[in-house]
Amino acid sequence: MKLLVTATARDGAGVARAEDGRVVFVEGALPGETVTAEVTQIDKRWSRARVLEVLEPSPERVPIPCAHQLEGCGGCDLMHVAADFQLRMKASIVSEQLLRAGVEAPDPSLTTLRDDHGRTTVRAAVVDGRGGYRVRGSHDVVVPEACGAIDPLAEQILVEGHFGCADEVTIRVGNRTGDRLVLVTGTDEDISVPDDVLVVSTDDLAGGRRAWIHEEAAGRRWRISARSFFQNRPAGVDALVAEVGAMVDALGGLGQEGPLVDAYAGIGIFTGTIGRGRTVYAIERSRDSIADARVNLDGSDVKIVNAPVESWKAQPAAIVIADPAREGLGKAGVDALVRADPQLFVLVGCEPGSFARDAGLLCTVGMRLEHLAVVDLFPDTTHVETVGAFVRA
């Protein structure tokens, strides 16, 4: 069908209307474009489609420079969008989601990454011993001969490595330390990677083995275990810590008395930077991340709470920083954290819909969104990282 695209959905797809009034989400289409599209999914109230031909392109559309993306690789789904427009596009997605949630929001600030060399954690499928990326909407795999989206230390392993009978491989590298690790499913037999790469299998970890790399970010050195969460690149950690720290300085004041809560603390990034000089409650349920946090935060005035955020028995705190997974806080998470009665609540979100829903929940308990930032943590992809500072209304 021929469609006029008028907006962008929260997953980056273009939004259009078919002749029968049905909303159509068009993957790969930009606002203002007229396209011919093929319907791939039909629901009662909406459909999904993919672009077959761009009849009237947006001025923000650019040629895709990667042959593997043209083959269908699902890794970089915004390569057709001009780099200087991508972040504005993501900001519009966030603003639209907040509007839908009934949240009054200021215009977001836009933050790009500095000293970025690409992703340092790569999860790949394995086919005939080679690592590759899933094709969009398919279980098929594209095996790349090169990948400019990832750190060169990781690219060498992905392109040159052979991973035996594994089904999946996770590659982790320290861009600023040179450490390299691969985690494969099953056993580590018949694995061929450069000699400096530490190889560990899921069977090894299940048997009690520990394995980690180190990375430097936000002015510190961090231990990161094979299965611990760490942002997809150190430049992203630099940007997030700077953004959250600026909000705390402006609205909470690092000199202000009172503890800080670091919810979904992971390996201790916010505790070990913004929380320095404070009493901190670091809440985390992953045992691997907690083990790293104990090393990374040794000597700090921190109480590490091994529990889901929803079950934390709240203690009074001046500031809460929450960085949940894609599903967000939800009502239970918001309720648990606001019982600490913070004056400042900083929410970090990696899915605009979840962020907007949680923002709405915070507003219903008497907080106001004072500052909003969109950080380009995932260039050339539709992933959106948002930071919001909420104060007492």
TL;DR?
With 393 residues, the protein is of the alpha/beta class.
Keywords:
OB fold (Dihydrolipoamide Acetyltransferase, E2P), Rossmann fold, 3 domains, six-stranded mixed beta sheet, globular
Description of the structure:
The protein is of the alpha/beta class and 393 residues long. It has three domains: 2-61, Beta Barrel (OB fold (Dihydrolipoamide Acetyltransferase, E2P)), CATH 2.40.50.140; 85-114 and 233-392, 3-Layer(aba) Sandwich (Rossmann fold); 121-225, Beta Barrel (OB fold (Dihydrolipoamide Acetyltransferase, E2P)). 22% of the residues lie in helices and 32% in strands. The strands form five sheets. The protein has an eight-stranded mixed β-sheet, with helices on both faces. It has a six-stranded mixed β-sheet with strand order 9-8-7-11-12-14. Helix 2 packs parallel to helix 8 and helix 7 (330-338) packs across helix 8 (352-364). It is globular, with a radius of gyration of 22 Å. 49% of the residues are buried. The mean pLDDT is 94.
